[in-house]
Design brief:
Blueprint lengths: L1 E7 L2 E6 L9 E11 L1 H8 L9 E2 L3 E9 L11 E4 L2 E2 L5 H4 L10 E2 L12 E4 L3 E3 L6 H5 L1 H14 L6 E5 L3 H12 L3 E5 L3 H9 L10 H7 L2 E6 L4 H10 L5 E4 L11 H6 L3 E4 L7 H11 L9 E6 L3 H9 L5 E5 L1
Parallel strand pairs: 11-12, 11-13, 13-14, 14-15, 16-17
Antiparallel strand pairs: 1-2, 1-4, 3-5, 3-9, 3-17, 5-6, 6-10, 7-8
Helix pairs in contact: 1-11, 4-5, 4-10
Amino acid sequence: MKAALLLAPRRLEISEIAAPRVGAGEVIIHPTLAGICGSDVSLFAGHRAPPAYPLLLGHEVVGRVSELGKEVTKFSRGQRVVVEPNYPCGVCAFCRAGRGNICPDKKSAGVTVPGCFAEMFAAPAEFVWAVPDAISDEDAVTLEPLAVSLHALWQSGAQMGDTVAVLGCGATGLLLIHAAVNQGVRVLAFDKLPEKMEFARRLGADVVPSDNIEKLWRDENVSTVFECAGVPATVELALSAAPRGSQVILMGLATRPASFVPLRLVRGEIRVSGSIIYNHPSDFSRAIALVARGGLHPSRIITDTLPFDSIDRALELASTGQSGKVLLQM
């Protein structure tokens, strides 16, 4: 089969490699569409070191089942499916407590196991989900990043009528805005790029310029600040400007230190937590149900769709930070 192999930072080749063999409890999927995630861009650009080269990237995918492993009975050949691409071990203390998203032994497609930027993709059937007819391919391929944003929104406890702030309007921030607005939550959106601010406005966020964000958030009774940019400056802004009694949820993957004043968090009883991917299996099933009912359309963040053989260009486009979700037509 043809597969896009990352050989070194910014060196990617479409090569002929052996097709995956279906194992017990697995399915083989022929991808139809694949999405490019920020983690794919980080690995492609060399900002994050992979376990080894060559690496087969990709984990956001919709496709059709072509082979079924032993004991797999819940799917049929030709069925349209999506994949929940993080596979917790299921036996550690975190998994037993229902927190497989922080399982230290979880496997991740496109990082620790081969990904979906190929003509065929193997996945454990437990983490494969049938796509209802009511969901388009474009909405299906963006279900995985939507589940990431929904996990954080549900963790926040935000309710209809609440006001929240979103720092960073990349795919995660935009999907969080879309989900929150759909739930009746008011969103104040912030990004350094005017085009991203306009994108957030089209999704229903309020874009309110302010020289004093701390005062704005206090006056607007912001209950939760979602940090989605993943850079020290926005982490510091979230922690320094969050209103008294509010919470800060860190979603961005900042790798450099950020500073804060502990006294401010203590006096204001400001809660700080992280949010990573999603819980298995509840979050994915809830996300699929919401989209199937027609309330959410995560495909609204798609800006570009390129052919598979233009994957280099697609990754470069995604790395500029100026696009929404970039797809590959497989």
